[in-house]
Amino acid sequence: MELPFSNFELTFIVIAFVFFSLFTLASVYIQPNKALPVKVSMKQRSPHPLKGSSE
């Protein structure tokens, strides 16, 4: 009975599995830095304010 993949292909499959497993575990266990809060501003200032604007 032959294997469905050659040893060369199995090497890349195992490397990809290990890589994505480690990436998944790292994304789960690494906590974001709470000392630097992210400030999101939805308001965008125009480079040329309109006349009569209160800004």
Describe the structure.
The protein has one helix spanning 7-29. It is 42% helix and 0% strand. The termini are far apart. It is elongated. It has 1 helix and no strands. This is Small integral membrane protein 31. Keywords: Membrane, Transmembrane, Transmembrane helix. The chain crosses the membrane at residues 12-30.
Short description:
The protein is an all-alpha fold and 55 residues long. The chain has one helix and no strands.
Structure annotation, total helices: 1
Number of beta strands? 0
The low-pLDDT segments are none
Shape: elongated
Please give the largest β-sheet. none
Fraction of helical residues: 40-55%
Q: Compute the CA-based radius of gyration.
A: 26 Å
Structural class: mainly alpha
Distance between the termini: 78 Å
Q: What's the pLDDT, averaged over the residues?
A: 80
Beta-strand percentage range: under 5%
Q: Strands, helices and their partners?
A:
Layout: H1 7-29
Can you give keywords for this protein?
55 residues, mainly alpha, 42% helix, membrane, Small integral membrane protein 31
